Amino acid sequence: MPSPATANRFDGRSVIGQSPVIQMRSGQRRLFQLVEQYRLLGFIARRQYGKTTTCANIALMKMMKHRDHTVIFGSAKLNLSREIVRKEAAVFEKAISAAMARLEEGKVQLADDKTGRSVSGLTHDDFADLFEHSRLEFRYYHTRSSYSRTKVVALRPDTVGETGDLMCDEVGRIGNWKDVWEAVEPIVASNPQFRILLLTTPPPDDAHYSFEQLAPPPGMQFPVSPSGNVYESVKGVTCLRVDAWDAYADGVALYDTKTAQPVTPEESRRRAFDKDAWDRNYGCLFITGGSAAVGLIKLMEAMERGERAGCVYAEDDLPPGWERLFDLSKGPVGIGADPATTEGEKSNPFGIAVTQRIDGRYATKLILSFKSKDPKKPKGILRELATRLKAKAVAIDATSEVYWATEVREELEGVCDVILVKNSEKLDVMGERVLYKTYLGQLLVNAIDESQIDVPNDFNVKDDFRLVKKMKGGFDNSLDAATGRHGDLFDGTKLSLHAIIEGTEEAKADAVQIGARVASISERAASAATSRLTMLPPPDDGPTTPTLNS
Description:
Radius of gyration: 28 Å
Shape: elongated
CATH class of the largest domain: Alpha Beta
Number of helices: 15
Distance between the termini: 63 Å
């Protein structure tokens, strides 16, 4: 037992008692092997599996192997409440203590990153304070003057300026993880030997960037294995996955929240109040849903179909030979335009989508994105598309560009119908007033969910569509600060659907607003922009219109 004078001191041994041996779990041992093989690696593990402890031991291994080496441990929890930070500090302190206890005294020392000086005689509160303020550094000395180090930092875009191995803890809980990732990825760029390890449980929102980084391919099955399963994510990231069943097979128990008695994973899940939360936190399942209006898996399926169907994404101008994308004998064409008349680096781009109905389904054969402050450029593109494709209609978002949209309608008179849509206006749906933004957004979302539409297989399309969020019974578009995108391609595509359906067939609506049950739309709704919404019965050959299910 430590004496009263030293009981509250951090000495590298008192925390763990007399045994200096760390009992590594099978999945942790496998992770040790994988971090040497892969430059970028994900570790998806059930809650309380020991991810932070594993990080501390990997850091020690890296420091022992490489002289004058830096390991950066990025903690998501440093951005959270003080209580959570202190708990994380205690876990990290215990892990470092265990590491120090195995080594010759003096080999591992703690330091204050701000002063650069070694510190000793720390209390647990001192340790936690250094940890909390991102000043904690522990060093492994190869000689008196040469050491390798591990730094603890908060995972924010502005807090990392080092190079070395990078371990990012609980990335699924970092709200701005995409911004953080763009900032920290260059850390390993200067040396091919540097590694990045991403640790997390699946995020609760499938719009989170870590979801598409680390989610396994749809339908992949994972047999129970004490050391976990290795897979390649949809983004190409190699991942080690250890869920509750894998850990249980390795002797890692689950304990009931109420009785504190050990239970099987099956029983633990049966007793869980929130099954989705259990599936994420212990089953390590990437569950679609959350705030994104368009589910990632369904969108990827639509993109894969689009690649087979020859759908194309282009930037700046119409691609050479674009006319060959369309066989006008197969069905009508609709054009949607979400206008923007600026060309700043971070301004919203102009989005144009061209969709054709083929055999009762929809194929967005062309999506075009560009920035231009010259209003004549998009007018010329729309005229060329409408004329050559004999478009049924061009639907334009006139919410903020009503004068420009009105000019386009006048210039295309005699070429095709031009529908001006104002998102802030409403249409009658069997007695219920529904925003055009909600109606058209749900039209496209359900077309994707029901596999009724194919879109170009391009990351710009994916990223843009995923900016659209479900919000208070409708839709809201997030802004990508880096590119200026604001769901412009999504809006252009939904308008192209509207252009095909307008004046040709009825949109059968089981629901329009998210979560609201209503009947079908069968009449026009007048708007201040003199646009009209006409829904007529579908033709006899049976093509379907995507429903508006919630």
